[in-house]
UniProtKB/TrEMBL annotation:
<protein>
    <submittedName>
        <fullName>4Fe-4S ferredoxin, iron-sulfur binding domain protein</fullName>
    </submittedName>
</protein>
<dbReference type="Pfam" id="PF14697">
    <property type="entry name" value="Fer4_21"/>
</dbReference>
<keyword id="KW-0732">Signal</keyword>
<feature type="signal peptide">
    <location>
        <begin position="1"/>
        <end position="32"/>
    </location>
</feature>
<dbReference type="Pfam" id="PF13187">
    <property type="entry name" value="Fer4_9"/>
</dbReference>
<dbReference type="InterPro" id="IPR017896">
    <property type="entry name" value="4Fe4S_Fe-S-bd"/>
</dbReference>
<dbReference type="InterPro" id="IPR017900">
    <property type="entry name" value="4Fe4S_Fe_S_CS"/>
</dbReference>
<keyword id="KW-0411">Iron-sulfur</keyword>
<dbReference type="GO" id="GO:0051536">
    <property type="term" value="F:iron-sulfur cluster binding"/>
</dbReference>
<feature type="domain" description="4Fe-4S ferredoxin-type">
    <location>
        <begin position="143"/>
        <end position="172"/>
    </location>
</feature>
<dbReference type="InterPro" id="IPR006311">
    <property type="entry name" value="TAT_signal"/>
</dbReference>
<feature type="domain" description="4Fe-4S ferredoxin-type">
    <location>
        <begin position="40"/>
        <end position="70"/>
    </location>
</feature>
<feature type="domain" description="4Fe-4S ferredoxin-type">
    <location>
        <begin position="78"/>
        <end position="106"/>
    </location>
</feature>
<feature type="domain" description="4Fe-4S ferredoxin-type">
    <location>
        <begin position="112"/>
        <end position="141"/>
    </location>
</feature>
<keyword id="KW-0408">Iron</keyword>
<dbReference type="GO" id="GO:0046872">
    <property type="term" value="F:metal ion binding"/>
</dbReference>
<keyword id="KW-0479">Metal-binding</keyword>
Length: 186
């Protein structure tokens, strides 16, 4: 098929408009709020090193990992994100072929921090028992729970247990401990 100048310009114009639309919605930029699996290196290194092979996702016995979508940013697309209760078995770090996930001790894991959405929380306390670190407690005299950021690992067990729709608790990448790749290699 021979491409005419007019067809070439139409295709180029459509590509530019599409790229501008994705850029306007943030789809091309990296989303710093993604919660990564335990042992993930610093975000910029992680996005560079991750092969998008999904070995970590496939090996997770809890099915706590999923693939990031294009809406999470072009550079994040198909990288692993934590979406459900992680038991810190560390199997994901053992199968990562690129070094994007490095083996760490479970007690060193800090993937993020849970945040209570006060307007959604009904004070049912269903998130307290599943929390493996005791980071969630009842606010005395109120129908609300509280998260201790120092104890929270960001494992998302509380999110998995929340019966409210939409969920009344979310985990953000805030407070995540992630070494730079050079430190992870040594």
């Amino acid at each position: 098929m021979q491409v005419t100048r007019r067809t070439f310009l139409k295709i180029s114009g459509a590509a530019i408009v599409t790229a501008a639309a994705f850029g306007a919605t943030g789809a091309l930029s990296a989303n710093a709020e993604l919660v990564r699996p335990p042992g993930a290196v610093a975000e910029a290194d992680f996005r560079y090193l991750c092969l998008r092979c999904h070995q970590c996702i496939d090996t997770c016995p809890e099915k706590a990992l999923a693939s990031a979508h294009l809406g999470d940013g072009w550079s994040n697309a198909a990288t692993p994100v934590l979406v459900s209760g992680c038991t810190l078995c560390m199997k994901c770090t053992q199968v990562c072929p690129s070094g994007a996930l490095t083996p760490i001790a479970p007690q060193a894991a800090k993937m993020g921090t849970a945040v209570i959405l006060e307007n959604e929380c009904v004070g049912c306390d269903k998130c307290i028992k599943p929390c493996p670190t005791g980071a969630i407690s009842k606010v005395p005299g109120k129908r609300l729970v509280l998260v201790d950021p120092a104890k929270c690992t960001g494992c998302m067990s509380c999110v998995k247990a929340c019966p409210v729709t939409p969920v009344a608790i979310k985990v953000t990448a805030a407070g995540a401990k992630r070494p730079p790749f050079s430190a992870a290699k040594s």
